[in-house]
Amino acid sequence: MNAPLYNLEILRLAAAIPHHERLANPGGTSEKRSPVCGSRVTVDIAVDDSGRVAAVGMLVRACALGQASAALLGEAVVGRMPAEIAAARDELTAWLAGERDTPPDWPGMDLFTPALPHRGRHASIRLAFEAAAEAAAQAVEARV
């Protein structure tokens, strides 16, 4: 496959990250950084009484791939349980590493198929999901 690494959809998502402001009182916060490229994503999460994500805030300083990944996370994270976010993180990691044939069960992730051979870009793509999974777990733990 010779699809371009940075296509129009990735650039569109990178320019339209939802929840792009930090939360004033998050239940959990996590910052992840890629040592390869310096991309950095901070995710704040608040959960409701049932443990579902009620609010999310993000600060994204990443390449277009990292920004697009954060946008996909932000578009579908509210209402999710922390286990769902952790599963998406693990599926994304396995898919990028070539340990699974299909993209994660998260809307839009097949967009990163052209990035599969570009291992140096994988960390940036994972950042938002890694930070969100950690922040959501912290938020649930803080409610207990």
Notable characteristics:
144 residues; alpha+beta; 3-stranded antiparallel β-sheet; 3 strands
Number of alpha- plus pi-helical segments: 4
Portion in helices: 25-40%
Quick one: how many beta strands? 3
Overall morphology: globular
Instruction: Return the string of H and E elements.
Output: HEEEHHH
Distance between the termini: 48 Å
Biggest β-sheet description:
3 strands, antiparallel
Low-confidence stretches: none
The largest sheet has its strands arranged as 1-2-3
Output mean pLDDT.
94
Radius of gyration: 14 Å
How would you describe the overall organization of this protein?
This protein has helices spanning 8-14, 64-76, 82-96, 122-143; strands at 28-33, 40-47, 53-61. It is an alpha+beta fold and 144 residues long. The protein has a 3-stranded antiparallel beta sheet. Strand 1 (28-33) and strand 2 form a beta hairpin. The protein is globular, with a radius of gyration of 14 Å.
